Ferric/cupric reductase transmembrane component B
Amino acid sequence: MKLSTAVLVAASASAPVAALQGFGQQSTGYFPYCATACYRALGSNYLSCSFDGYVPGGMMDSDSASATPACRAGNMPFLSSLAYCISTHCSYDIGIIETWWAAKSTGSGGAFEPPKWSYQEALMNVTTAPTNVLTAKDNLTSAMLANETNYRNQYGTLFMVDREEFLHEKYGLVLLMMGFGIPLLATWLGYLPFVSPLIHKLKPYIVWPSTIRSYQVRPLPYLGGSALTRGQALYVAAMTILTVVFMAVHYESYQPNLWYPGQSVELMAYVVWRTGCYSLALLPVVLLFAARNNTLLWLTNWSHETYILLHRWVARIFALLVIIHSVLSIAYYVEDGNYDSNFSEAWWVWGSVGTVAVSAMLITATPWVRRYSYEFFLLSHIVLAVFVLAGTWYHLLYLYMNMSGYEQWLYVAFGVWGLDRLFRVLRVLKNGVQRARIVDIGGDIVRVDIEGIRWGFQPGKVVYAFFPTLQPLRPWENHPFSVLPTAMLERSNAVAPALDKDSRSSLGSGTRNDVEKNVISQQIPTKQVATAAEHQPTAGITFFIRKSRGFTKQLAAGTNILALLDGPYPGNPTAPILQCDRVLLICGGIGITAILPWIDSHPNVKLAWSVKEYASPLVDSVSKVLDRVVEKDVRIGHRLDIEELLAEDTQAGWKRIGVVACGPDGMCDDTRALVTAAAKRGNAQFELEVHAYSW
């Protein structure tokens, strides 16, 4: 039961502004426990300046009238009795005692008045050791002894409460740091020279494979959700195990407890505290993983799709903790007999608002809702998230009046959520008001061109596009699209360097001397200057959209359509693929949009693309890009043989093959399974990136 003095001194409650419980300048405000126990053992008795009807703040174990802080501050019998009690029970340095005395001897928090005498001055006033023991009914009119039983119970109660709050805040910090730290650690370890080869060997076994057969992008039968890969499952398992362990360990009880009558009630209260604290600790992780401006996207090699999937699972842990917190709170107050008196309190009402909003989010975020109406899911998710944050804030505000330190967790959560929203707006403002041209190319596919955007040719970029005039009743709606440079679609095959007239005529001769001249003439540099008229504009972006239900169904051919762009954002990491000797691009249907930028990013690319008959106009739309690809396998109305494609590259002797897949759910899952199997055979080293365009 003993905490180190250094930790307790650091947790001293000398400052009115709360930090995390047990950290920084303040824990719960009870250290040193001997001094606070003396104050509480004496503080509920009448003084000469007391009046009926005043109940001291923070005296959870007292229901009797007592004195105001101003009354205590100038009352020598109280201060001398308190000083004598402290002198006989506390062995701390005088500086620690004086610090506590100056801040806590007459009250706590806002209910405090500086004492008229210092600790040593009040103690010097006790010229003769008191012998009378104070009882609950006595008026404190002279220096008296605190009741020893009351003192011990006060000390034990305060120590146990402080211990529990220190523990669950410490464990909460571990959860928060592990939530953010695991992706960083997993990525940065991969850069170590002696670790990187090991990770490459482990990827086919513990990173890429699905946990449930070959399901990953495809929805699971009956359940409808997405299966985790083994790598993703390791993260979820680590966070789940940590949460369960931290919920289960290091409970202790003190009885008779002046706050909690009975061990079961006391331990139930501690469980309520832990579930509340751990849910607060996980909230920033939940919000960051869902954010578009997720700093971990730039600091790790994990994809946005992975973070979204982990967001759902961490959010489920968070929601479960919130629900358990609420259910046990009801059980606790029913057991304690105070349910009716607390039910209408503001802190209870706002806590209920947060719990109901979390429960509603679990329902509206199910795969069935997301697939049936993504727009409804998105709007309801944002609105309910606001209610969760507001409910939690006011729950803590009315319960603790910002004196507990729990609001520090919310500051982090507000920062993550608010900065993400702010940077979204700033990105839209930076890109400015744009005009889009929409062309219906057939097969329920439209091409959207937006001129004047210069984002480069790097693969893996995603943009969230708004078209307010197409949906005037819901102008805030936006959807993610893979983006490619318009110039890439307009550029034809590379033209051979131009030669002057004499050089061209000399190439027609067949004599030896002429051949020698040819060699020389080809080595003479020729000056070339391309004019702007010879080239299509280099600025602009394009994305292809397949019409479906909801917003995309409203897309129709038109020009000068108002467009706002939030982006670009990184989708999947590109470095591991681009470091390979060979890149195999596998796509289906509209997935070609995410694949095309890879073509100009690596010198050794093979493209395999299958398109359904009705979507064949899409092939014509990207024909100029296809003409530049030396190795390609484009099939209309036929499936790709992915296993054969992998076997061909392996047999060709490539040592390190990067595979990028984007297309229908089944094709992506098949590619994952086949690449995993090929990597296990060890004939070549593989890298894999899957761009799923389902939600």
About this structure: The chain has a mean pLDDT of 85. Residues 77 and 342 are 37 Å apart (CA to CA).
